[in-house]
Amino acid sequence: MNQIIKDLNWRYAVKKYDSSKKIEEQDLAILKETISLSPSSMGLQAYKVLVIENPEIRSKLQEKSFGQTQVTEASHLFVFCGFTEITEDYINLMVEKTAETRNQTLSELEGFKNFLGSKMTMDSDKLEIWTAKQTYIALGHLMQTAAQLRIDSTPMEGFDPHGYDEVLNLSEKGLKANLVCTLGFRAEDDIYQHMQKVRKNHTDLFELV
Length: 209
Ligand SMILES: Cc1cc2nc3c(=O)[nH]c(=O)nc-3n(C[C@H](O)[C@H](O)[C@H](O)COP(=O)(O)O)c2cc1C
Fold this sequence. Notes:
44% helix, NADH Oxidase, globular, four-stranded antiparallel beta sheet
């Protein structure tokens, strides 16, 4: 079987982690770099990923995640947060970073800056949806890389964003939690690892037009 398909079949949404196993620092660095290399609209990366190791905070977050044990038992908890606003300072920062990285002048990037500025005027509901969508792309990359490294993961929407906001003071940081991913190593007795994947037939999933 093709290696990519093997990796994807190896992955499943883990329900029970072995809490004694921790992700090595060098693998954690690869996982973070994967998120960093994910594409984002106009390269703005209008999101932040909180990497939560602190057990007390994780215990509080578990209460806000319908008691799901992965939140406390996994090696790591990644909380994907979208920006709730895009400020002029942020746009300036990204333009300056582009100029510095690509050895360009700020005046060369004036058009780009104005284009980015159009996002600042987006209404807040639209902006939240726009930034949230992009975190899902990073999540997909993260889970694929994790599977290649034989690190388990669980994507989770089963949590209360307001509860996360309270525990992590997200609104004062201009963030909103829209997605969680736990990462670590499956427990030997997690029965879900033996379950067949349920997927639609390709003839139903794809349509040749
Ligand atoms: C956006 C999203 C949210 C999910 N939320 C949860 C969740 O809160 N808890 C959980 O145990 N699994 C969650 N899952 C996992 C799905 O139930 C799982 O991916 C799906 O049933 C397919 O199974 P597989 O990933 O094991 O192949 C979520 C998956 C996605 C993509």
